[in-house]
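Review box. Two proteins, two foldings.
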Amino acid sequence: MDFLNDLPAATLMQLHADVLFTYDARGRMLQANEPWPDRGLAPLFFLGLPVTGTPVRRYRHDVPEAVVQALEAVAGTESFTGIPDQAPRHITQYQQLLQSHHWEAGPSFYIPENFTSDGPSIHLTKAHASLIGPDFKWLPQELAHVQPCAAVIENGSVASVCRSVRITATAHEAGIDTLVPFRGKGHAAAVLARWAAMVRATGALPLYSTSWNNHASRSVARKAGLICYGSTFSIS
């Protein structure tokens, strides 16, 4: 298990579920665990399928208990072996029980300690506000909330950025944005590597996830050699 920092895939998936949402005293989801004031609601149902081990199930606080129990009965039979590549087996039943067809799914990745990049990058803070151009006009307002944050500078301004978009004491989840003219130059790997090192320095684990249809993000994970520990699925 050393390639997963001595943590099994199922434990990483539990940490992932913890970092994605806020919870009430019952362990029911409340909101997206985003480090800025305007947070969205959590999904009705979250299912984390690790490559090995027991699926992780979480439910929003307002889902009726009878529906929770029905979902438990179905989700408890989910099984997955190997690298995920699709939505869970019982998706139709989940949709029927929750009376919703809006769902999202995608792979989850762990950033190993030996992941490095030769590309130049910096720790981006408020002191570098003058380097943030109009294409990242949202970044100055959130910069204090998404630390650590790493960036690649091209032509005197930020071209690529990786920051902590969901945070707990045990794990951070990465959010990466690279301006279109600078893609394909290894910048995403450079900012991800620096961000992951800074997250580890806080004592937390660096995690990364995306959706199945986000081919650019999946390409970053593949090229960087990130370790897929499972797949997540949610219905809103």
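Next protein.
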Amino acid sequence: MMRAWILPMLLVLSGSVVAAGQLLKGSTGAAIALLLVFLLLAGVNSPLIFPRSIGAVEAQRRSAVDGRPVVFWRPGCVYCLRLRIRLGRSARRLHWVDIWRDADGAAAVRAANDGNETVPTVVVAGRPHVNPDPAWVREQLSPPA
């Protein structure tokens, strides 16, 4: 769990240091602006922006029942963030597995990607797709009931 928060914590720490430097120079406005930018980056790269992750075994079980795709992702991945943002509200209709929190999820991604933990890996009907186009992923969702 802690690994998912390393990048956001580093961004907050770095932003604090940079903002403190600007404050020491007497530039309060720049300090506030830089701190806000770093806080925004930390928030975007935190696990908070993604739907709640579940384990790979549970995601695969749910996918078999409802037919929804499973998305394997990790915090700090810009391609995962791109997919999440471009899916918008539709992202809640997928099953999300954080491979840094779930060893079975990481193993499933390695099995699908020749031993690499390449994310996002989206599994649709049992077939893995690496870094698919968000529009294609949206098409794979069944219409809401």
